[in-house]
Design a protein that fits this description.
With about 375 residues, the protein is mainly beta. About 10% of the residues lie in helices and about 40% in strands. Strands 10, 11, 12, 13 and 14 form a 5-stranded antiparallel sheet that branches. Strands 19-20-21-22-26 form a 5-stranded mixed sheet, with helices on one face.
């Protein structure tokens, strides 16, 4: 074989070697961000408060799923989700509904369509999914979501758009290049965390030839970004990031393997390195969960309380007082036989309220809000919110 004929072979081998290093590596070096912002929360009064509502009461779609939530400075809320015939279907779009400061929901509307995204990016798109909102200053919002070029979630690419008016209008789309393999299979799921530098740490994951939890590091304005690996392997993904200090945080991971336990990893250097992901004291039915930090270092989790694969017939809240090593169930948000309640998304605001959105009965997005007094009133009984 002459030198010229060897060139294509060597090029392919170099590409495969680079691809292998990417997928097998435990961490990619993120930009040197200064550390996490430790969120503050008004602990509020002693009167328990709990409200539950449906965001998309009149939704005609068969599937409404994977909701994200943002709070605006005036106390209004913005919720986004994907909806359509089903996961990966061509009619799936990204939908948005806003809740005024006095608690009134506006009519849901579609803000991203498959056809519109394909035209904006100049690329083939078969479906959309997994929107996540970035809270910036004022009424500025970022929207991360995936466009699927082929197949299902493993064929996803990550996109970013910005709104300066609380989600009423959106600027140009930008495709984020997060890996060298045709830029496939990076998906967001859980709430981002602000950084002292003004940017965000966004929990993301890869779902191509294995499952890999990662952090997407976005600079202020998202002009620069990088990705770092939290854990390797084939079964843990969809990280939920809970910040305990400027340098310390925990991630809690969905388990798609046989163990059926939430996995937990920690960092003491602002996310540049992570401990090995170990089983936590929470069951996992191969389903998404959300975890946030509360005042005093306590952690709050929303999860499906089952170790049976894809059993999502309940959604419970649990508290941890020891950094996530042990947990106590405190409340049931939803439970009904042969129904599905899944993909919770928790948000603690600067006010005294904790908010959550989740998928309910497959085609509804449920919303609930409660304060710390209500949460404390549930302790000891593991009671139902209903």
């Amino acid at each position: 074989m002459n030198q010229r004929s060897l060139r294509p072979v060597l090029a392919v081998l170099a590409l495969v070697a680079g691809w292998g290093a990417w997928w097998s590596g435990q961490a990619l070096a993120p930009p040197p961000f200064a550390g996490f912002v430790v969120a503050t929360m008004d602990e509020g009064g002693r009167v328990p408060h709990f409200v539950e509502e449906t965001v998309n009461e009149s939704s005609p779609q068969r599937k409404a799923h994977s909701a994200s939530l943002a709070r605006q400075p005036d106390g209004s809320l913005v919720v986004v989700w994907y909806a359509g015939h089903g996961e990966g279907a061509p009619d799936v779009g990204i939908w948005l509904a806003a809740r005024s400061a006095d608690g009134q929901w506006g009519e849901p509307r579609e803000i991203m369509t498959r056809e519109g995204v394909a035209a904006a990016l100049g690329r083939h798109v078969v479906s959309l999914g997994n929107p996540v909102l970035l809270e910036a200053d004022g009424h500025r919002l970022g929207l991360l979501f995936v466009s699927i070029a082929a197949g299902r979630w493993s064929g996803s690419s990550l996109n970013l758009a910005w709104s300066d008016d609380g989600g009423q209008t959106w600027g140009p789309l930008r495709k984020l290049t997060t890996n060298p393999l045709a830029n496939l299979s990076t998906l967001p799921r859980n709430p981002p965390v602000r950084l002292l530098s003004g940017g965000w740490a966004v929990p993301v994951y890869e779902e191509f030839i294995g499952r890999y939890p990662e952090i997407l590091w976005l600079s202020a304005g998202a002009g620069a970004y990088g990705v770092s690996r939290v854990a390797g392997g084939m079964s843990v993904f969809q990280p939920a990031l809970a910040v305990l200090s400027t340098d310390g945080a925990e991630v809690f991971l969905r388990d798609g393997g046989a163990l059926r336990r939430v996995r937990r990893a920690t960092t003491g250097d602002a996310g540049r390195s992570w401990t090995r992901a170990m089983p936590a004291d929470l069951p996992n039915a191969d389903s998404g969960l959300s975890v946030i930090a509360l005042p005093g270092g306590r952690l709050l989790a929303a999860f499906n309380d089952s170790d049976q694969r894809r059993d999502r017939q309940n959604l419970r809240l649990a508290l941890s007082d020891d950094g996530g090593a042990t947990w106590t169930n405190v409340a049931t948000l939803a439970e009904e036989e042969d129904r599905e309640f899944s993909y919770p998304y928790l948000l603690a605001g600067p006010d005294d309220l904790i908010r959550i959105v989740y998928s309910s009965r497959r085609n509804r997005i449920a919303y609930a809000e409660f304060n710390l007094a209500w949460l404390e009133a549930q302790q000891g009984g593991g009671g139902s919110a209903r």
